[in-house]
Design brief:
20 strands, alpha/beta, 8-stranded parallel β-barrel, TIM Barrel, 32% helix, 669 residues, Rossmann fold, 20 helices, 2 domains
């Protein structure tokens, strides 16, 4: 960070502290013991003084309880707080709900602020204090909104702070329920692009940058990285993986976790909790269909290669990742040592979570289920929206293999299998009911509650859960972070074709015809933009990997990229490429959110890139030679759909005669 920028941040922090103290007289910064006394912040609970030091009186009893004493080890504090909790409060701790947004319609939790009345019910009555945020608004507003939620939590009986989580929000593709628009955050290539660069140090640095941005706005947990392997090229979630090679993915996952958690020694006050997902085998999706959906609930392993899909997660374990999210998928007809694996989703699979994850892999952190696994799967969930009706996220379920169980039975089965917390629900009463019915023991529930509490203490949230909106505006998306993200975008480009060494362009200022590229960006880069191919000297076209709308009656099926990967006759992008190539040298970049089949594109282009999310300005910089492409393919690009159908979903780089092999990438002369 430059001296000038660091000074600006310092001034912003000083001004913000002054503003915050004016607005909130309960915030106290104590200087009695500068090497030990942390900064405390309270809005409704008092501060008490003991031995000349200050502490938050979170239960309002005018006594310093062990859980309020920041001098004690986190484990001891968590155990003492656990002993003070009611069964209902413990049950709420096992829910990972949704911070209610103020928007109507769309995905639950969206908007530019929170519905505080609804939030109060969730926090104070349901005792839920872990939530995903889906807000997409400016950083200062997001920070303030998070503070409003923390104030509600502080006023509860024990003052337990919230843990706020998020799906990834530093990239290009925004899919409801899987990622969030950057809204001011620095923007980096998708994980595939970082894998294509192959630089673990860069991935670690990205994680550190995003960590600072997350904590600045009050986000404490990232629902990432995906340790899944993209061994089935049709799979809808390839874009957020590190590709199909287990060794590469392991290195990238480890670096990612180390960046976000700020080291490899576990959680501390500067960390963001990482939730590596989706343990394990999610990428071996049957026919490439995603297990968010009933029709895609199976992962399949005809190549007997399940163990290969665990390898990337070992990178996370080496970095002491704090949490793991199980897959939705049922492992179709999988057998281990001759015994069949239970045909239930990963969140209910005792063999997967207890025998493998806890036992063999020695993971001792938090297991957070993926979203909605305890919900009922009705006719719409199974069969899609009725004709004439739009698909809706309301009532969605992903609880594969347990639909016949009651909700108390589902919660009990998940917890007994190894889940500590359930994503996307606030229905804590069913855990209480499961205990009363004898389906769950208090000891097992306490084990999970302790894991959740421990992480809150390790992050320092019991001392100060609030953030500074002024500082958030200065940190998130600051010029250095934006520049670093764009530099990574440039590096991640994979040069697939460069006939006659067209690139980098030797002549600047050409008359250029554009499709999918901003005319303003091209003009700023020195090109003369023309509206007709007849007037052009060069064409630049952006395209996407083809997909099909196979399941429009399902909420995820309507928005996910499913189906074939090849450019069909009549495809608008293919027609544009042919028209351009008939007139002028044509440069094409294809967004590789899945492994595109480029067999009928390759003969048309003079130069071609594969990209994983890149701004127009960064793309034009590389075309003009102001930067160089450094990416290599993190997966192979098949030659045909026939080859895709012949490959096995659990094996890497195994399609016959690929057009471009794994690791391919040209360099400029």
């Amino acid at each position: 960070m430059t001296t000038k920028f660091a000074m600006a941040i310092s001034l912003a922090l000083l001004a913000a502290c002054s503003n915050q103290q004016d607005a909130d007289t309960r915030v106290a910064v104590t200087t009695a013991a500068p090497q030990a006394q942390p900064v405390l912040a309270s809005r409704s609970k008092s501060l008490i003084t003991v031995d000349g030091l200050q502490f938050r009186d979170l239960n309002n009893n005018q006594t310093l309880d062990a859980y309020e004493d920041w001098r004690l080890p986190a484990q001891q504090r968590a155990e003492q707080l656990l002993a003070l909790m009611t069964v209902e409060e413990k049950a709420g701790m096992l829910m990972h709900g949704t911070a209610p947004g103020n928007a109507t319609g769309g995905v639950s939790g969206s908007g530019d602020g929170y519905d505080l009345a609804r939030a109060s019910v969730i926090i104070r009555q349901n005792h839920v204090n872990s939530m995903i945020t889906r807000l997409a608004t400016v950083p200062a507003q997001m920070a303030k909104a998070g503070n409003d939620l923390q104030e509600i939590a502080e006023a509860a009986r024990l003052g337990i702070p919230l843990t706020l989580s998020t799906d990834p929000r530093n990239h290009f593709q925004f899919t409801a329920g899987a990622s969030v628009s950057p809204s001011g955050f620095s923007q980096w290539p998708e994980m595939l692009g970082l894998a294509g660069i192959g630089d673990a140090g860069l991935v670690r640095h990205f994680g550190d940058v995003a960590r600072q941005e997350y904590r600045a706005v009050g986000i404490h947990m990232g629902l990432s990285p995906q340790g899944d392997l993209a061994t089935e090229p049709r799979w809808t979630r390839v874009t957020a993986t590190f590709g199909e090679d287990a060794a590469l993915a392991r290195r990238m996952v480890q670096a990612y976790v180390e960046g976000f958690q700020h080291g490899a020694s576990g959680l501390h006050t500067d960390s963001v909790i990482m939730v590596v997902k989706h343990f394990a085998g999610y990428g071996a999706a049957k026919d490439g269909l995603d297990s968010h959906n009933y029709y895609g609930r199976f992962a399949t392993f005809p190549g007997n290669n399940f163990e290969y899909h665990i390898e990337p997660f070992r990178g996370a374990f080496a970095a002491r990742v704090a949490a793991v999210m199980p897959t939705y998928s049922i492992f179709e007809n999988l057998q281990v040592n001759g015994a069949p694996v239970e045909q239930v989703g990963g969140g209910y699979n005792h063999w997967l979570l207890t025998d493998i994850l806890r036992g063999r892999e020695h993971f001792d952190g938090l297991v957070l289920s993926d979203w909605a696994i305890t919900q009922d799967c009705n006719d719409v969930c199974r069969d899609g929206a009725p004709t004439g009706q739009s698909p809706s996220f309301a009532g969605i379920s992903t609880g594969w293999g347990v639909q016949e169980l009651s909700k108390p039975e589902r919660f009990a089965k998940g917890i007994n299998a190894g889940v500590d917390q359930f994503g996307g629900t606030e229905e804590s009463t069913y855990v209480v009911e499961a205990i009363k019915l004898g389906l769950l023991t208090q000891a097992r529930v306490d084990q999970s509650v302790l894991r959740v509490l421990l992480q809150k203490f390790q992050l320092g949230l019991f001392e100060n859960p609030y953030v500074d909106p002024v500082a958030a505006a200065a940190v998130v998306g600051n010029p250095e972070f934006l520049q670093q993200g764009e530099a990574a975008q440039r590096r991640s480009l994979v040069l697939l074709e460069n006939r006659n060494n067209l690139l980098p362009l030797a002549v600047h200022g050409q008359k250029v015809f554009l499709q999918g590229v901003s005319a303003a960006a091209a003009g700023k880069a020195g090109f003369t933009v023309v509206d007709s191919l007849q007037d052009a000297e060069l064409a630049i076209i952006r395209a996407e990997t083809p997909h099909q709308l196979l399941h429009p009656d399902y909420p995820f099926g309507a928005i996910q990229h499913e189906g074939d990967l090849d450019f069909k006759e009549g495809d608008a992008s293919l027609l544009a490429m042919r028209a351009a190539a008939a007139q002028v040298p044509t440069i094409v970049t294809v967004m590789l959110d899945r492994p595109a089949i480029l067999t009928n594109v390759k003969p048309l282009v003079t130069a071609m890139f594969g990209d994983f999310g890149i701004s127009d300005a960064a793309l034009l910089d590389v075309i003009a030679g102001n930067a160089r492409p450094e990416g290599s393919l993190p997966f192979e690009l098949p030659s045909s759909m026939e080859a895709v159908r012949k490959q096995l979903p659990d094996l890497p780089y195994d399609s016959p005669d690929p057009l471009y092999k794994f690791g391919f990438g040209l360099r400029y002369p």
